[in-house]
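thought: fold this chain, then report.
action: predict
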Amino acid sequence: MMEIKMQPMGVTQTNCYIVTIDNKDLIIDPGIGATQWVLNNTKNPIAILNTHGHYDHVWSNSELKDKLKVPLYIQKEDEFMLTKCPLGQNVPPSQADYLVNGDEELNIDNISVYYRHFPGHTPGNSIIEIEDVWFSGDFIFDQSIGRWDFPFSSGEAMVNSLDKAMQIEKNFTLYPGHGVSTTLKKEQKGMPIWREYVKNNS
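observation:
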């Protein structure tokens, strides 16, 4: 059985998640000021997972890696953001231990973790699928999608990612990088409208 803890972090209120399965803890997107909350709420941490490389999702990577001695995972296209923030923030640099390549299923201490690559918001932007849950980062929110006007963002890639997400038939519970949870089926209803909006405003 999976247990999910969530805490919004920093001025951007970026959701940090702790996912516990079989008494093992996965930490997803430890943002600004996340370290103490993570330390207080983990007993057996096994990995840090980043949905993408923006500063508000990776800020506490380095501090937590140092304290917990666990590996860090990120999509390879966003690795550069761990040491050079494209949004001009003085983010503490961190180093990935594993670079995810595209859509990739990982076995992390006998827990199946599936990275699904949905570029657009960033080149390596991904959702992290665990069982029937998507940790959707800044790709899909409740009734919204991630921005595509940042440095290294791409409207064309976002359109392609929305097309890809619309093809998925299984429903998932979505826990986004900001705001409240939703479901894939609910958000798929608005994706054609978002697709056209992005296409016409890129």
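thought: worth noting. The mean pLDDT is 97.
final: tokens above.
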